[in-house]
Amino acid sequence: DEGLREEVIESLGPEELAEAVRDLETDDVVDLLEDLDAPQQDEILEALEDADRVAVEQALTYPEDSAGRLMQRELVVAPEHWTVGEAIDYLRTQQDLPEQFYHMILVDPKMRPTGYVTLGKLLSSPRDMKLQDITEDSFRTISVNQDEEDVAYAFNQYHLISAPVVDENDRLVGVITIDDAMAVLDEEAEEDMLRLAGVGEGSLSDRVIETSKRRLPWLFVTMLAAIAASFVIAQFEATIAEFVALAVLMPIVASMGGNAGTQALTVAVRALATKDITSANVWRVIRREVLVGLVNGVVFALVMGIIGMLWFGMPMLGVVIGAALVINLLVASLAGVVVPVLLDKLGIDPALASGAFVTTVTDVVGFFAFLGLASVVLL
Asked: Is 224 among the domain residues?
């Protein structure tokens, strides 16, 4: 938790903090320094060994949320011409190996990665066998400037355990391991969830005014959506005055549409984040959600049609609310997919802005369909 981490950092003196980070890997040090001010960064950097300090300073020059910030500099590297025996002897004699590693990366004379060998394959192969003969076929490199979300997607898509990071000249500069990649996926999932709720990032330790500032904009957008829905209702004031039962049933139409839209929206935003929705399958996804909305609409139309008829003794009222539910759930499911897809195409974060649009669509369409049908059928 970032808020808790800030409290711990503030409680530690400069010397205690510097001592604590000496045992961290470079990627963890970079993650810590990103949230500190310049004087604190300088104190920690001075406490590091020369090699670690240079590595951390270099990592901080890369763009935020890039592979360069995510990677660690602690590597296990071997020349591609080595044998298994030479590699094992090297591992036994080295004192500064990472605490955890999964592969030995092979490089050419220009320090460009050419493959990697798993530890299991290394230990089970004859000592005189060339490392080149037991390299993995699934070798992939990551650009140092690649967005960390794309990196995490690559790990998830191609089932990577670790991947070497290269600079613009394809030279090896670091490695990203699966634990760091999965941490990015967890952060993205949490971020999407918070944005869908319109609360943004934050923690229980944040000040009241900071939390309020984050939430106010989206509450304001929600208020505008409510005003739009109220405007639609106002157009049917005479119809509502004639049939009070409409006022009783209106919240059902709106809430059912809102829930259906939220379900479709959540699925779509997550699929966009994991790149499961592409230009090749987007129409199939839209068609599927529309059919789901239609089926659910028919089911609840039958249920509420019967309830409305028995409750108020008006068969046509049951027909009206049933038809309105079919329309609203159909439109809600459609909007739940189309809105985030369009926002993503426009370069706008769908998790941040979709909720307000979908809520507005479902409320306006739901009230208009219900009250409009009532005006035509019942009056």
From this structure: yes
Place of tokens 């004859």: 126
Q: DSSP labels for 97-154?
A: --SS--EEEEE-TTS-EEEEEEHHHHHHS-TTSBGGGG--TT---EETTSBHHHHHHH
Cα distance between residue 248 and residue 304, in whole Å: 13
- 81/36 same-domain check: no
pTM for the model? 0.66
The size of the chain, in residues, is: 379
Count of CA atoms in the C-beta half-sphere (13 A) of 59 = 31
- The Cα 299–Cα 210 span in angstroms is 44
How many structural domains does the chain have? Answer: 3
260, 314, 321 from 303: Cα distances, Å:
16, 15, 10
Q: Reduced to 3 states, what is the DSSP secondary structure of residue 83?
A: strand
Q: What is the CA radius of gyration of the chain?
A: 29
d(CA 18, CA 29): 10
- Asked whether 152 and 184 are in contact (CB, 8 A), the reply is yes
Q: Which of 164, 320, 190 is nearest to 249 (CA)?
A: 320
Looking at per-residue confidence, does 316 or 47 come out higher? 316
Give 165's strand partners. 142, 174
% of residues, the chain, pLDDT over 70: 90
Residues 144 and 280 reside in one and the same domain: no
Contact (CB, 8 A) for 113 and 141: yes
Same domain, 371 and 225: yes
- Structural domain for 53, as ranges: 2-61
Whether 21 is in a domain gets the answer yes
Looking at 140, 164, 196, the residue that finishes a domain is 196
Whole-Å CA distances, 195 to 178, 234, 353: 26, 31, 8
Q: Strand 103-107 relative to strand 162-166: parallel, antiparallel, unpaired?
A: unpaired
- CATH of residue 108's domain is 3.10.580.10
Both tokens of residue 364?
């306006």
In this structure, of 6-20, 96-110, 269-283, 358-372, the range with the lowest mean pLDDT score is 6-20
Q: How far apart are CA 338 and CA 113, in angstroms?
A: 42
Domain boundary among 163, 196, 229: 196
State how far the Cα of 289 lies from the Cα of 363, in Å rounded to an integer.
Answer: 19
CA distance 107 to 10: 43
